[in-house]
């Protein structure tokens, strides 16, 4: 739930979306301000190893500088804290990760 002290911040966040979007979806999305907050929250940077082309043991050393952490709920998937440019690396271009 959004506190009164957060209203100014949320008001600014509302301004990031088209007026038509706010008018349409605010009517039927409960706790709309939390919905907007969720939309503005950055997604985690995750990738999967393409095991058709390589084993994780072969791929992970190539991106050890990103300190990939395995995801407990999805075998073969990893999360990195700073994955900026992950899609521009050669291992992505070669299809070793996606």
Give your account of this protein's structure.
- With about 100 residues, this protein is of the alpha+beta class.
- It has two domains: about 5-40, no CATH class; about 45-95.
- About 35% of the residues lie in helices and about 10% in strands.
- The protein contains five helices and three strands.
- It has helices at about 5-15, 20-25, 30-40, 55-60, 90-95, and strands at about 45-50, 70, 75-80.
- A three-stranded antiparallel β-sheet has the order 1-3-2, with no helix packed on it.
- A hairpin with a 6-residue loop joins strand 2 (about 70) and strand 3 (about 75-80).
- It starts with 6 loop residues before the first helix and ends in a 5-residue tail after the last helix.
- The mean pLDDT is about 85.
Describe the structure concisely.
This protein is α+β, with helices and mostly antiparallel strands and 98 residues long. The protein has five helices and three strands, in the order H-H-H-E-H-E-E-H.
Descriptive key words:
98 residues; 5 helices; 33% helix; 10% strand
Averaged pLDDT: 87
Strand content: 5-15%
Oligomer: single chain
Catalogue the unreliable spans: none
- Sketch the major β-sheet: 3 strands, antiparallel
Overall tally of domains: 2
Residue share in helices?
A: 25-40%
Structural class: alpha+beta
- The coarse silhouette is elongated
CA(first)-CA(last) distance: 36 Å
Radius of gyration: 19 Å
Biggest sheet, strands in spatial order? 1-3-2
